[in-house]
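We close this part of the discussion by returning to an individual protein. Part of our work consisted of pairing the sequence of a single chain with a tokenised description of its backbone. No coordinates are needed to read the tokens, only the vocabulary itself. The amino acid sequence and the backbone structure tokens for this protein are reproduced below:
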Amino acid sequence: MTTETSTETNGSTGMATGTTGSTGIADTVTGLLGEVLSSRKEAAEPPVTTKADWTSDQEPRWCPGCGDYSVLTAIQLLMPELGARMENTVFVSGIGCAARFPYYMNTYGMHTIHGRAPAIASGLAMARPDLDVWVIGGDGDLLSIGGNHLIHALRRNINLKILLFNNQIYGLTKGQYSPTSEVGKVTKSSPLGSLAEPFNAISLALSAEATFVARTHDMDRAHMQEMFRRAYEHHGVAFVEIYQNCNVFNDGAFELITKKDKRPSMLINLKHGEPIRFGENMENGVVLESHDIVKIAKVADVGESAVLVHDEKQVNPSLALALSRLASGPFMPTPIGVFRAVDRQEYAEELSRQIAYSQDLKKNPGDLEALLYSRATWEVT
């Protein structure tokens, strides 16, 4: 793209003022942004990589049997299939067991401070829209001290892929109740049982208007990879909750629904455009009781036509929210899969256009150094 530009200096401020030729600054910046975003699609062929290419030389430092190993392996195996590039991939984490994830990926990464991963990743994604930015955090990291940063990253629809490792416990600090621990949970910090109602992470993400919301678990690699693939392909923010077992401080938290023999009757696999049914013989279904309440019923009792057909594309999140409230904990039939996948303007793109429009309106790209020195300054000695 070629644009003729002439520049002159404003004598009173020292700021450069510019005028553009056949295309305005806004058109130029928008065009360049479009080129950046489409660069991967225009590549002749995706790079050929293997799991070994995506695996760093660092030995994972998790407890033997931790569910984090399963998630790590699923990601390392999936990345070559996505055609992703290591040099364009970044993993950003906060504090906690899961936060060691960036060390084990042979990509760029940043191990940040407690709860701030969404904020730091947001800045990176807006400054470098050509990168694939993943956010890694546990339930304590993202839903406690990081809760504010999380909900604003979700509502802004910044192009981030956020993986929430939910083990319903603080593992790194050796077993305290977390924002997702059930009422009555006895831990070192709640010897008589926790009193607070737990967060429902899916409900929280939907209420924050996240455009992609999904749930999976660490005992099913194929399902994890499908959710991660869908998240990667989504343009905008993608939030995936992973039920992840902490076998030292909260072992078996999800076994009532994730053990292989329990899954048919306890996991409700949401598939877009299909009736929501589950059970050994698909004998159970989810039906709409009112405009925003769903319940489980025997298909033989209500009829096939009464079974709710899942629509992940519904702009109004009310039904997705109702599905997220179907189970009050991982001891009841629980929906997994994609709850919501809708399109909305991505924040970084709109911000870039807004800045470009402002520059075009003033016929001046701006000069930060000139701005900083345009007023009285002080020298501290």
The radius of gyration is 24 Å. The first helix runs from residue 25 to 42. The longest strand covers residues 334-341.
